[in-house]
Protein backbone atom coordinates (compact mmCIF):
# COMPACT_ATOMS: atom_id res chain seq x y z
CA UNK A 1 0.00 0.00 0.00
CA UNK A 2 1.39 3.40 -0.96
CA UNK A 3 0.93 6.11 1.62
CA UNK A 4 1.32 9.87 1.79
CA UNK A 5 2.49 10.36 5.36
CA UNK A 6 2.11 13.64 7.19
CA UNK A 7 3.77 13.91 10.59
CA UNK A 8 2.14 16.59 12.75
CA UNK A 9 4.11 17.89 15.76
CA UNK A 10 7.37 16.52 17.11
CA UNK A 11 6.40 12.89 17.66
CA UNK A 12 4.58 12.78 14.30
CA UNK A 13 7.59 14.14 12.40
CA UNK A 14 10.03 11.79 14.10
CA UNK A 15 7.88 8.74 13.40
CA UNK A 16 7.44 9.64 9.71
CA UNK A 17 11.22 10.20 9.50
CA UNK A 18 11.63 6.72 10.91
CA UNK A 19 9.20 5.24 8.38
CA UNK A 20 11.42 6.65 5.61
CA UNK A 21 14.42 4.97 7.17
CA UNK A 22 12.46 1.68 7.44
CA UNK A 23 11.46 1.98 3.79
CA UNK A 24 15.10 2.37 2.73
CA UNK A 25 16.27 -0.47 4.96
CA UNK A 26 13.62 -3.00 3.93
CA UNK A 27 12.87 -1.77 0.44
CA UNK A 28 9.19 -1.93 1.27
CA UNK A 29 8.11 1.06 -0.82
CA UNK A 30 5.22 2.19 1.37
CA UNK A 31 6.08 5.88 1.78
CA UNK A 32 5.22 7.62 -1.49
CA UNK A 33 5.52 11.07 0.08
CA UNK A 34 6.50 12.43 3.50
CA UNK A 35 5.66 15.81 4.99
CA UNK A 36 6.29 17.25 8.46
CA UNK A 37 4.20 20.05 9.97
CA UNK A 38 5.17 21.80 13.19
CA UNK A 39 4.95 25.09 15.06
CA UNK A 40 8.45 24.58 16.49
CA UNK A 41 11.33 25.40 14.16
CA UNK A 42 13.86 23.39 16.13
CA UNK A 43 11.80 20.20 15.78
CA UNK A 44 11.70 20.57 12.00
CA UNK A 45 15.45 21.19 11.83
CA UNK A 46 16.04 18.03 13.89
CA UNK A 47 14.50 15.72 11.28
CA UNK A 48 16.84 13.57 9.17
CA UNK A 49 15.06 12.28 6.11
CA UNK A 50 11.96 14.29 5.33
CA UNK A 51 12.97 16.60 2.44
CA UNK A 52 13.48 20.20 3.59
CA UNK A 53 10.92 21.54 1.13
CA UNK A 54 8.35 19.23 2.78
CA UNK A 55 8.85 20.66 6.27
CA UNK A 56 6.13 23.18 6.97
CA UNK A 57 6.38 25.68 9.81
CA UNK A 58 2.96 26.92 10.92
CA UNK A 59 1.83 29.53 13.44
CA UNK A 60 4.84 31.80 13.00
CA UNK A 61 2.72 34.91 13.51
CA UNK A 62 1.41 33.57 16.84
CA UNK A 63 4.25 31.57 18.43
CA UNK A 64 7.33 32.66 16.43
CA UNK A 65 8.62 29.16 15.79
CA UNK A 66 8.64 28.14 19.46
CA UNK A 67 5.88 25.54 19.57
CA UNK A 68 2.58 25.91 21.40
CA UNK A 69 3.63 24.59 24.83
CA UNK A 70 1.11 21.75 24.98
CA UNK A 71 -1.81 24.11 24.31
CA UNK A 72 -4.12 21.87 22.31
CA UNK A 73 -6.59 24.62 21.40
CA UNK A 74 -3.87 26.90 20.14
CA UNK A 75 -2.52 23.96 18.12
CA UNK A 76 -5.90 23.56 16.45
CA UNK A 77 -6.25 27.30 15.80
CA UNK A 78 -2.91 27.75 14.08
CA UNK A 79 -3.51 24.63 11.98
CA UNK A 80 -6.75 26.17 10.75
CA UNK A 81 -5.14 29.55 10.10
CA UNK A 82 -2.20 28.12 8.16
CA UNK A 83 -3.87 25.17 6.42
CA UNK A 84 -3.04 26.70 3.00
CA UNK A 85 0.68 26.39 3.72
CA UNK A 86 0.22 22.71 4.53
CA UNK A 87 -1.85 22.32 1.37
CA UNK A 88 0.96 23.86 -0.71
CA UNK A 89 3.27 21.07 0.40
CA UNK A 90 0.58 18.44 -0.25
CA UNK A 91 0.08 19.85 -3.76
CA UNK A 92 3.51 18.51 -4.69
CA UNK A 93 2.41 14.92 -3.93
CA UNK A 94 1.29 12.82 -6.90
CA UNK A 95 -1.91 11.83 -5.07
CA UNK A 96 -3.08 9.63 -7.98
CA UNK A 97 -0.20 7.29 -7.04
CA UNK A 98 -1.23 7.15 -3.40
CA UNK A 99 -3.69 4.68 -1.81
CA UNK A 100 -4.29 6.67 1.38
CA UNK A 101 -3.10 9.49 3.63
CA UNK A 102 -1.67 8.66 7.02
CA UNK A 103 -1.64 11.58 9.48
CA UNK A 104 0.76 10.74 12.31
CA UNK A 105 0.77 12.57 15.62
CA UNK A 106 1.48 12.39 19.33
CA UNK A 107 -1.79 13.14 21.12
CA UNK A 108 -0.38 14.53 24.37
CA UNK A 109 1.26 17.76 23.16
CA UNK A 110 -0.34 20.81 21.58
CA UNK A 111 0.70 21.14 17.95
CA UNK A 112 -0.04 17.59 16.80
CA UNK A 113 -2.96 16.83 19.11
CA UNK A 114 -4.75 20.02 18.07
CA UNK A 115 -3.61 20.17 14.45
CA UNK A 116 -3.83 16.57 13.24
CA UNK A 117 -7.66 16.37 13.44
CA UNK A 118 -7.92 19.74 11.66
CA UNK A 119 -5.70 18.46 8.84
CA UNK A 120 -7.59 15.15 8.61
CA UNK A 121 -10.88 17.02 8.22
CA UNK A 122 -9.37 19.24 5.52
CA UNK A 123 -7.96 16.25 3.58
CA UNK A 124 -11.27 14.42 3.68
CA UNK A 125 -13.04 17.41 2.22
CA UNK A 126 -10.64 17.60 -0.72
CA UNK A 127 -9.56 14.06 -1.58
CA UNK A 128 -11.45 10.86 -2.27
CA UNK A 129 -8.75 8.46 -1.00
CA UNK A 130 -9.01 7.33 2.63
CA UNK A 131 -7.47 9.42 5.40
CA UNK A 132 -6.14 7.39 8.30
CA UNK A 133 -4.70 8.62 11.57
CA UNK A 134 -1.88 7.14 13.59
CA UNK A 135 -2.24 8.58 17.06
CA UNK A 136 0.28 8.07 19.86
CA UNK A 137 -1.10 8.22 23.41
CA UNK A 138 1.14 9.77 26.11
CA UNK A 139 2.52 7.90 29.12
CA UNK A 140 0.30 8.25 32.18
CA UNK A 141 3.27 9.70 34.12
CA UNK A 142 3.61 12.66 31.72
CA UNK A 143 1.13 14.79 33.65
CA UNK A 144 -2.46 15.96 33.63
CA UNK A 145 -2.26 18.33 30.71
CA UNK A 146 -0.93 15.58 28.42
CA UNK A 147 -3.69 13.20 29.42
CA UNK A 148 -6.29 15.88 28.94
CA UNK A 149 -4.92 16.81 25.51
CA UNK A 150 -5.02 13.15 24.54
CA UNK A 151 -8.58 12.81 25.77
CA UNK A 152 -9.69 15.80 23.70
CA UNK A 153 -7.62 15.00 20.64
CA UNK A 154 -8.79 11.41 20.61
CA UNK A 155 -12.43 12.45 20.47
CA UNK A 156 -11.95 14.70 17.46
CA UNK A 157 -9.27 12.69 15.65
CA UNK A 158 -11.34 9.50 15.62
CA UNK A 159 -14.29 11.45 14.23
CA UNK A 160 -12.33 13.10 11.40
CA UNK A 161 -10.40 10.10 10.03
CA UNK A 162 -11.55 6.97 8.22
CA UNK A 163 -9.84 4.92 10.91
CA UNK A 164 -7.64 5.78 13.87
CA UNK A 165 -4.72 3.43 14.43
CA UNK A 166 -3.45 3.85 17.97
CA UNK A 167 -0.15 3.26 19.70
CA UNK A 168 -0.04 3.67 23.48
CA UNK A 169 3.35 4.87 24.79
CA UNK A 170 2.19 3.96 28.27
CA UNK A 171 2.30 0.24 27.66
CA UNK A 172 5.62 0.36 25.84
CA UNK A 173 7.84 2.58 28.01
CA UNK A 174 10.62 0.67 29.76
CA UNK A 175 11.49 1.89 33.20
CA UNK A 176 15.03 3.20 33.71
CA UNK A 177 15.49 4.40 30.14
CA UNK A 178 16.17 7.97 29.12
CA UNK A 179 13.14 9.54 27.46
CA UNK A 180 14.93 10.01 24.12
CA UNK A 181 16.53 6.54 24.12
CA UNK A 182 13.15 5.11 25.05
CA UNK A 183 11.43 6.84 22.12
CA UNK A 184 14.09 5.57 19.71
CA UNK A 185 13.17 2.00 20.59
CA UNK A 186 9.45 2.68 20.72
CA UNK A 187 9.54 4.35 17.30
CA UNK A 188 11.28 1.32 15.87
CA UNK A 189 8.50 -0.90 17.26
CA UNK A 190 5.91 1.41 15.72
CA UNK A 191 7.40 1.38 12.22
CA UNK A 192 8.02 -2.37 12.31
CA UNK A 193 4.41 -3.17 13.12
CA UNK A 194 2.71 -0.68 10.85
CA UNK A 195 5.41 -1.17 8.20
CA UNK A 196 4.78 -4.91 7.83
CA UNK A 197 1.07 -4.30 7.74
CA UNK A 198 1.04 -1.48 5.17
CA UNK A 199 3.85 -3.15 3.25
CA UNK A 200 1.71 -6.17 2.45
CA UNK A 201 1.28 -6.38 -1.29
CA UNK A 202 3.93 -3.75 -2.08
CA UNK A 203 6.93 -4.97 -3.99
CA UNK A 204 9.90 -2.67 -3.50
CA UNK A 205 12.84 -2.57 -5.88
CA UNK A 206 14.88 -5.76 -5.69
CA UNK A 207 12.27 -7.52 -3.51
CA UNK A 208 11.23 -11.09 -4.09
CA UNK A 209 8.39 -10.89 -6.63
CA UNK A 210 5.75 -13.42 -5.81
CA UNK A 211 2.04 -13.80 -5.91
CA UNK A 212 0.72 -12.15 -2.81
CA UNK A 213 -2.67 -12.82 -1.38
CA UNK A 214 -2.94 -9.60 0.59
CA UNK A 215 -3.23 -6.36 -1.33
CA UNK A 216 -4.06 -2.79 -0.44
CA UNK A 217 -7.79 -3.20 -1.06
CA UNK A 218 -7.91 -5.75 1.76
CA UNK A 219 -6.21 -3.35 4.14
CA UNK A 220 -8.64 -0.62 3.07
CA UNK A 221 -11.65 -2.91 3.50
CA UNK A 222 -10.53 -3.95 6.96
CA UNK A 223 -10.11 -0.31 7.98
CA UNK A 224 -13.34 0.87 6.37
CA UNK A 225 -16.19 1.23 8.79
CA UNK A 226 -13.99 3.41 10.96
CA UNK A 227 -13.36 3.36 14.68
CA UNK A 228 -10.16 2.53 16.49
CA UNK A 229 -7.57 -0.02 15.47
CA UNK A 230 -4.70 -1.82 17.15
CA UNK A 231 -1.97 -4.05 15.77
CA UNK A 232 -0.46 -7.26 17.12
CA UNK A 233 2.86 -8.62 15.95
CA UNK A 234 5.14 -11.62 16.49
CA UNK A 235 8.13 -12.91 14.58
CA UNK A 236 10.65 -15.70 14.52
CA UNK A 237 14.02 -15.70 12.89
CA UNK A 238 14.98 -17.98 10.08
CA UNK A 239 18.67 -18.44 9.48
CA UNK A 240 20.90 -18.70 6.47
CA UNK A 241 22.87 -21.96 6.33
CA UNK A 242 26.35 -22.21 4.84
CA UNK A 243 25.20 -23.19 1.39
CA UNK A 244 23.13 -20.02 1.23
CA UNK A 245 19.76 -21.75 1.64
CA UNK A 246 17.46 -20.77 4.46
CA UNK A 247 17.56 -23.09 7.41
CA UNK A 248 15.04 -22.39 10.04
CA UNK A 249 14.56 -22.44 13.74
CA UNK A 250 10.99 -21.65 12.75
CA UNK A 251 10.47 -25.09 11.20
CA UNK A 252 13.04 -26.95 13.18
CA UNK A 253 15.02 -27.06 9.94
CA UNK A 254 16.03 -30.61 10.50
CA UNK A 255 14.65 -32.65 7.70
CA UNK A 256 11.37 -33.58 6.13
CA UNK A 257 11.00 -32.72 2.44
CA UNK A 258 13.60 -31.79 -0.13
CA UNK A 259 14.02 -28.31 1.23
CA UNK A 260 14.24 -29.45 4.82
CA UNK A 261 10.74 -28.22 5.66
CA UNK A 262 7.88 -30.21 7.04
CA UNK A 263 4.42 -28.94 6.05
CA UNK A 264 2.63 -29.97 9.25
CA UNK A 265 5.35 -28.41 11.32
CA UNK A 266 5.15 -25.17 9.32
CA UNK A 267 1.36 -25.09 9.78
CA UNK A 268 1.66 -25.53 13.53
CA UNK A 269 4.34 -22.91 13.85
CA UNK A 270 2.28 -20.40 11.85
CA UNK A 271 -0.73 -21.03 14.08
CA UNK A 272 1.24 -20.43 17.23
CA UNK A 273 2.83 -17.29 15.77
CA UNK A 274 -0.69 -15.95 15.07
CA UNK A 275 -1.73 -16.64 18.68
CA UNK A 276 1.39 -14.93 20.01
CA UNK A 277 0.68 -11.87 17.86
CA UNK A 278 -2.95 -11.58 18.95
CA UNK A 279 -2.47 -12.36 22.64
CA UNK A 280 0.85 -10.55 23.13
CA UNK A 281 1.30 -6.82 23.57
CA UNK A 282 -0.87 -4.88 21.12
CA UNK A 283 -0.04 -1.32 19.99
CA UNK A 284 -3.14 -0.38 21.99
CA UNK A 285 -3.90 -3.08 24.56
CA UNK A 286 -7.53 -4.23 24.50
CA UNK A 287 -9.86 -7.20 24.64
CA UNK A 288 -9.82 -8.73 21.20
CA UNK A 289 -13.28 -10.17 21.63
CA UNK A 290 -15.79 -7.86 20.00
CA UNK A 291 -13.39 -6.64 17.28
CA UNK A 292 -15.43 -5.76 14.21
CA UNK A 293 -12.93 -6.65 11.45
CA UNK A 294 -9.46 -8.16 11.34
CA UNK A 295 -6.64 -8.77 8.89
CA UNK A 296 -3.86 -11.30 9.30
CA UNK A 297 -0.66 -10.86 7.29
CA UNK A 298 1.95 -13.61 7.39
CA UNK A 299 5.21 -12.45 5.88
CA UNK A 300 8.56 -14.08 5.24
CA UNK A 301 10.29 -16.30 2.69
CA UNK A 302 7.59 -18.07 0.68
CA UNK A 303 8.79 -21.55 1.54
CA UNK A 304 8.00 -20.89 5.20
CA UNK A 305 4.44 -19.82 4.47
CA UNK A 306 1.59 -22.15 3.73
CA UNK A 307 -2.08 -21.64 3.07
CA UNK A 308 -3.18 -24.19 5.59
CA UNK A 309 -1.37 -22.43 8.42
CA UNK A 310 -2.76 -19.04 7.42
CA UNK A 311 -6.27 -20.46 7.09
CA UNK A 312 -6.05 -22.06 10.53
CA UNK A 313 -4.75 -18.83 12.03
CA UNK A 314 -7.57 -16.91 10.37
CA UNK A 315 -10.22 -19.30 11.71
CA UNK A 316 -8.76 -19.06 15.18
CA UNK A 317 -8.96 -15.26 14.96
CA UNK A 318 -12.60 -15.50 13.90
CA UNK A 319 -13.38 -17.51 16.99
CA UNK A 320 -11.43 -15.27 19.37
CA UNK A 321 -12.80 -11.99 18.04
CA UNK A 322 -16.30 -13.22 17.26
CA UNK A 323 -16.00 -11.35 13.94
CA UNK A 324 -17.27 -12.71 10.65
CA UNK A 325 -14.96 -10.39 8.76
CA UNK A 326 -11.46 -11.74 9.22
CA UNK A 327 -9.19 -11.55 6.19
CA UNK A 328 -5.87 -13.26 5.87
CA UNK A 329 -3.06 -13.79 3.45
CA UNK A 330 0.63 -14.04 2.91
CA UNK A 331 3.24 -11.54 1.91
CA UNK A 332 6.32 -13.35 0.61
CA UNK A 333 9.49 -11.43 1.37
CA UNK A 334 13.17 -12.25 1.27
CA UNK A 335 13.68 -11.32 4.93
CA UNK A 336 15.40 -13.72 7.33
CA UNK A 337 12.30 -13.94 9.54
CA UNK A 338 8.70 -15.04 9.49
CA UNK A 339 6.27 -12.62 11.06
CA UNK A 340 2.57 -12.36 11.79
CA UNK A 341 0.98 -8.90 11.87
CA UNK A 342 -2.66 -8.66 12.89
CA UNK A 343 -4.78 -5.59 12.36
CA UNK A 344 -7.77 -5.49 14.71
CA UNK A 345 -10.12 -2.82 13.43
CA UNK A 346 -13.11 -1.41 15.27
CA UNK A 347 -12.07 -2.55 18.73
CA UNK A 348 -14.52 -1.70 21.46
CA UNK A 349 -13.25 -2.91 24.80
CA UNK A 350 -10.22 -0.67 25.43
CA UNK A 351 -9.49 0.20 29.09
CA UNK A 352 -7.16 3.12 28.25
CA UNK A 353 -9.75 4.79 26.05
CA UNK A 354 -12.41 4.38 28.70
CA UNK A 355 -10.13 6.11 31.21
CA UNK A 356 -9.44 8.93 28.74
CA UNK A 357 -13.14 9.44 28.18
CA UNK A 358 -13.59 9.69 31.93
CA UNK A 359 -10.81 12.30 32.10
CA UNK A 360 -12.51 14.36 29.40
CA UNK A 361 -15.71 14.39 31.44
CA UNK A 362 -13.98 15.27 34.73
CA UNK A 363 -11.95 18.00 33.02
CA UNK A 364 -15.08 20.04 32.50
CA UNK A 365 -15.06 20.50 36.29
CA UNK A 366 -11.55 21.91 36.69
CA UNK A 367 -11.12 23.84 33.49
CA UNK A 368 -9.60 26.91 35.18
CA UNK A 369 -6.56 25.11 36.64
CA UNK A 370 -5.82 23.50 33.34
CA UNK A 371 -6.06 26.77 31.44
CA UNK A 372 -3.67 28.37 33.92
CA UNK A 373 -1.12 25.56 33.56
CA UNK A 374 -1.29 25.84 29.81
CA UNK A 375 -0.90 29.66 29.80
CA UNK A 376 2.15 29.40 32.06
CA UNK A 377 3.72 26.87 29.72
CA UNK A 378 3.26 29.14 26.77
CA UNK A 379 4.61 32.23 28.56
CA UNK A 380 7.73 30.35 29.61
CA UNK A 381 8.38 29.22 26.08
CA UNK A 382 8.10 32.67 24.57
CA UNK A 383 10.21 34.28 27.33
CA UNK A 384 12.88 31.59 27.01
CA UNK A 385 13.50 32.47 23.46
CA UNK A 386 13.83 36.21 23.28
CA UNK A 387 16.65 35.86 20.76
CA UNK A 388 15.26 34.80 17.46
CA UNK A 389 16.37 31.48 16.05
CA UNK A 390 18.18 31.48 12.74
CA UNK A 391 15.91 31.18 9.70
CA UNK A 392 15.02 27.55 9.09
CA UNK A 393 16.39 27.02 5.60
N1 LIG B 1 6.29 7.23 20.41
C1 LIG B 1 6.76 8.47 20.54
N2 LIG B 1 6.10 9.36 21.28
C2 LIG B 1 6.60 10.60 21.40
C3 LIG B 1 7.82 10.99 20.79
N3 LIG B 1 8.05 12.29 21.12
C4 LIG B 1 7.01 12.70 21.89
N4 LIG B 1 6.13 11.67 22.06
C5 LIG B 1 4.81 11.66 22.73
O1 LIG B 1 4.01 12.61 22.06
C6 LIG B 1 3.42 13.51 22.98
C7 LIG B 1 3.32 14.83 22.28
O2 LIG B 1 4.57 15.41 22.18
P1 LIG B 1 5.07 16.23 20.94
O3 LIG B 1 4.83 15.51 19.68
O4 LIG B 1 6.48 16.58 21.29
O5 LIG B 1 4.15 17.54 20.96
P2 LIG B 1 3.81 18.53 19.78
O6 LIG B 1 2.66 18.00 19.02
O7 LIG B 1 5.05 18.84 18.98
O8 LIG B 1 3.26 19.81 20.52
P3 LIG B 1 4.01 20.97 21.35
O9 LIG B 1 5.38 20.46 21.71
O10 LIG B 1 3.12 21.18 22.52
O11 LIG B 1 4.06 22.16 20.45
C8 LIG B 1 4.26 13.41 24.22
O12 LIG B 1 3.44 13.59 25.32
C9 LIG B 1 4.81 11.99 24.18
O13 LIG B 1 3.93 11.08 24.80
C10 LIG B 1 8.50 10.03 20.00
O14 LIG B 1 9.57 10.25 19.41
N5 LIG B 1 7.92 8.79 19.92
TrEMBL record:
GO terms for cellular component: cell division site; cytoplasm; microtubule. Transmembrane segments: none annotated. Keywords: Cell cycle, Cell division, Cell shape, Cytoplasm, GTP-binding, Nucleotide-binding. PROSITE patterns: TUBULIN. It comes from the Archaea. Residues 2-195 form the Tubulin/FtsZ GTPase domain. Pfam families: CetZ_C, Tubulin. GO terms for biological process: cell division; microtubule-based process; regulation of cell shape. Belongs to the CetZ family. This is Tubulin-like protein CetZ. The gene is cetZ.
Amino acid sequence: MKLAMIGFGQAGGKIVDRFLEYDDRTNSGIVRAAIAVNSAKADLIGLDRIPEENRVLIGQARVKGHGVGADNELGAEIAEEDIDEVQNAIDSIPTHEVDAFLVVSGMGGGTGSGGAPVLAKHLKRIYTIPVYGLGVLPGTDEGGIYTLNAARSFQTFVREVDNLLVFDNDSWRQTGESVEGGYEKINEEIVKRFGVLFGAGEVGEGQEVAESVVDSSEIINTLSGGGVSTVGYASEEVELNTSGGLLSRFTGGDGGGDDGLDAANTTNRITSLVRKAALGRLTLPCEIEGTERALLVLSGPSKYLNRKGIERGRKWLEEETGSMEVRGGDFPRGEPEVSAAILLSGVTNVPRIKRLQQVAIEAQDNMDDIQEESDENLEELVEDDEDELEPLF
